[in-house]
Amino acid sequence: MATATYPPPPPYYRLYKDYLQDPNSAPEPPPPIEGTYVCFGGNYTTSDVLPSLEEQGVRQLYSKGPNVDFKKELRSLNGELQLHILELADILIERPSQYARRVEEISTVCKNLHHLLNSLRPHQARATLIHILELQIQRRKQAVEDIKRRREEARRLLNESLATFDGH
């Protein structure tokens, strides 16, 4: 019994049979998905909006509003996290049965830290893209300078060759 190494192509490959003669004969691609969709059993949305902590059922520990000082708030939450961890260590030594409240407070602080960091992601992406584009511009300028240098070197060699040829 013979078996195929690869499965047969999907049936819609026939839609592209005349593509080489007429590139416009191929069907148009499907439109982009708008709104929500299901993928592998999970519901997803096409809008990249960071849900607020209240929407997630978590108490917000840092100041609300559009003008949040991220550096100050992250430092504050980091100090608070360290304090809660020390308190948890004390409670585990002295009253081990009362640790659950401290663990919940640590979880709330961590979720707030995570939310603050996630709200910085668009700024990080923008800065990374700017950096990549600046590097590309720098590389292209270097390539242009290299081409100019080699062109001048080739002209010099050509002129020397012509002078040598004319001298004989």
- Spatial strand sequence of the major β-sheet: 1-2
Judged by helices, strands and strand pairing, the structural class is mainly alpha
Strand share of the residues?
under 5%
Count of helices?
3
**Unreliably modeled segments:** none
- Average pLDDT over all residues: 90
- Distance N to C terminus: 79 Å
- How many β-strand runs? 2
Shape: flat
User: What Rg do the Cα atoms give?
Assistant: 32 Å
> Main beta sheet, described?
2 strands, antiparallel
Order of secondary-structure elements: EEHHH
Query: Helix coverage percent of residues?
Result: 55-70%
Question: How would you describe this structure to a colleague?
Answer:
With 168 residues, the protein is mainly α. 55% of the residues lie in helices and 5% in strands. It is built from three helices and two strands. It has helices at 70-94, 99-119, 121-167, and strands at residues 36-39, 42-45. Strands 1-2 form a two-stranded antiparallel sheet. Strand 1 (36-39) and strand 2 form a beta hairpin. Helix 1 packs antiparallel against helix 2 (99-119). The longest helix is centred in the last third of the chain and has 47 residues, at 121-167. The chain is flat, with a radius of gyration of 32 Å. The chain starts with 35 loop residues before the first strand and ends with a helix.
